[in-house]
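Is S-adenosylmethionine placement plausible here? Inputs below.
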Amino acid sequence: MGSGSRTGLMAAQQLMAGQLFVVATPIGNLGDISYRAVEILRGVAAVACEDTRQTRRLLDHYGLTTPLVSYHEHNEAARAAELLGRLQAGDDIALVSDAGTPLISDPGYRIVSLAVAAGVRVVPIPGACAAVAALSASGLATDSFRFGGFLPRKSPERKRLLEQMNQEPHLTLVFYESPHRIVASLADIEAVLGNPQVVLGRELTKIHEEFLRGRASEVRAALENRPQILGEFCVVIGRRERVAAFSGDPAAEVARLVESGMDRMEAIKKAARAAGISKRELYRRLER
Ligand code: SAM
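Reply from A.M.:
I modeled the complex. Tokens:
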């Protein structure tokens, strides 16, 4: 078959194919869903979801009776192929996760990538995302940030990741974390990133929504004072002073700190402390 007729066949298949809608759902408050999302969930042939009970509750709230198909990390491979078959046969399908935007630390990558590769139209229906919600109200710099998904569960891997992130101290960092590990993670953030400003967004959009702000050590102490730590957390980490091993040369250390954006007086104070000499002595050396 010539490439022209192959292209023609693919175009014809695309015309017949359904569309895959990637639909964001609420992260707590059921009102946080767009009109368009509700209409899409009403109109599609099926909604592919992680937990059918959870999505049924959402659909019931909006009076929707659309059939559900389970699609989660354990059946993703088989289900993705099946859903692609339905899309190619002309069904419109909506993909949702339990909460927030599908594919953001949630299943969906496989079906979306398959659909794109097969030339099926993929349509995003944007809405809630815990990471963006936390960042937007954090009060920390938002011009450039890195979303890192869930922090690793084990401390050595977590520290390694944080060390990598410390290579780009100008970026605000955003992570997801569980209530069981939040205190240990804050201790690692403090140790590796030099006790930066952090904002924890807890239970966002829910009745007990809360923001905890301060240095990592302060926020950790506030949590440790609680009888128990409950809820869902997003961790936002502010810009950091680059924490690097002291080279041994205080003058070079001042230059390095100033280059990374630190005020010169502050850099001299810090470098003098690291070298175990007085500020005055360091001034004298710098003058020389
Ligand atoms: N796809 C989702 C999104 O767009 O936000 C994230 C799914 S991920 C499996 C779940 C994690 O997101 C939770 O463990 C928590 O760290 C964070 N999260 C979800 N809902 C949250 C909320 N209401 N408040 C704070 N963090 C939340």
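Short version: The mean pLDDT is 91.
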